Amino acid sequence: MRFGSGRIASRLGVASLLSAALLGSSLVGPAEAAVHPEWGYTKGKPGVLKRGCHTYTYTYAVKPPPGYWAIETFLIGPGGGRLGAGKHLDGADPLTGSGVFRLCKPATRAGVFTIRTKVTSVDGGDYYEGWLPESKFRLKKPKKRR
Asked: How far apart are CA 92 and CA 15, in angstroms?
């Protein structure tokens, strides 16, 4: 896919373009766009859905197409509801790292959670967009207090 014509002159311009893409992004499923396992992965850490509000860590590793890149992560809950999102940008974040989603026990339930990750890259006039394979992790109910 081509995006505009000519070269983008500065990293700031690319960051602005990627940020605009992130802000205007909608959550579409991998079935609506190409899935690229060669571009990387995400992985959530299984655990316990704690009482109250807490952060839950995930890791990512990307090998994006050439150019300046951005990834958007979307957390989907056990009932299919959208629970959170995050972003990682070239120049601000490493190719391999971690992020967090903040979940509150009253607003969700234990079960299997899905991370969907969209990759966007701009190299001069070339624009690439696709999805990483979905990853799943389980958060269990807390043990009952006696």
From this structure: 10
